[in-house]
Design brief:
Blueprint lengths: L13 E3 L9 E5 H10 L7 E5 L5 E9 L3 E11 L7 E5 L6 H12 L3 E6 L10 H15 L6 E2 L3 E2 H6 L6 E5 L5 E2 H4 L6 E5 L7 H8 L4 E5 L7 H16 L8
Parallel strand pairs: 1-3, 6-7, 6-12, 7-8, 7-9, 10-12, 10-13, 11-13
Antiparallel strand pairs: 2-5, 3-4, 4-5
Length: 251
């Protein structure tokens, strides 16, 4: 007897929607998403689509009708609840356009709960397109299966960030002067943040101010000098393996 095909198929398109989802709900799709489903994927009535809303999890929907510039989907079943993610923030100094987009994308893929842009003395980019960064994170979440989008904070100056730093959150910062290997200080179940400086690094004064924060720990990411975006991705990966949901016991 032939095996029953998996449903929905692995090739089913997956989209983020702002509309809160529920069983039986009718969901309008317009704009770029409608063009993607209707003209690129060429979906027709009855075809499946996966949807997630960052609130209720992931749902299976079917195409109810297709118009020239819009589609309407009907929710048929919940596939999974919204995921629980480790309580890890990435606090990163903005870098050049393209690179900061890459950081936002990889932070989402790697499972970060919150992205906080921080302005330091050597930061060369002081204006961010938050809408574009969020779009990159949404696209990454659609592709990697996340059901919880990272929160995106407004840019904040380093001194203000340190002044208001929550006492219960460990601040792990990449210290060019040397520090403890990250895998040794990452603690499962403990709220944490990874702080990555700009291309030029932190000034001596900034480094001293960071170290003065209770719970701040200077960390090392190995023997080589890393670009800012590489350091961010490497640090998240190490933390996830040591304290996050990459650990074997958390699977």
């Amino acid at each position: 007897m032939p095996a029953t095909p998996a449903w929905p198929p692995a090739s089913t398109p997956r989209l983020f929607v702002e509309t809160p989802l529920s069983d039986g709900a009718s969901v309008p799709i317009e704009g770029a998403a409608a063009n993607y489903l209707g003209n690129v994927m060429r979906l027709k009535a009855g075809d499946p689509v996966r949807l997630f809303d960052d609130q209720t999890g992931e749902w299976l929907a079917t195409v109810a009708d297709v118009g020239k510039r819009a589609l309407r989907l009907t929710i048929t079943a919940q596939l999974s609840a919204r995921e629980d993610v480790p309580d890890l923030w990435l606090v990163a100094a903005p870098i050049k356009k393209g690179r900061i987009d890459w950081v936002a994308e990889k932070a989402c893929e790697l499972g970060v709960a919150r992205l906080v842009p921080v302005i330091t003395r050597r930061t060369i980019v002081d204006k961010l397109n938050s809408e574009r960064l969020r779009a990159h994170m949404i696209e990454a979440a659609e592709q990697c299966g996340r059901t919880a989008l990272p929160a995106l904070a407004e840019p904040v100056k380093l001194d203000a960030l340190l002044r208001d730093w929550p006492a219960d959150r460990t601040l792990l910062f990449a210290d060019e002067a040397g520090g403890v290997p990250l895998a040794q200080v990452a603690k499962p179940g403990s709220p944490a943040a990874i702080l990555i400086g700009p291309e030029g690094g932190f000034t001596d004064e900034e480094r001293a101010a960071i170290r003065a924060v209770p719970g701040a720990i200077g960390m090392s990411l190995g023997p080589r000098i890393l670009r800012a975006e590489t350091a961010a991705a490497a640090a998240i990966a190490i933390w996830m393996a040591a304290a996050g949901d990459w650990r074997s016991e958390s699977r």
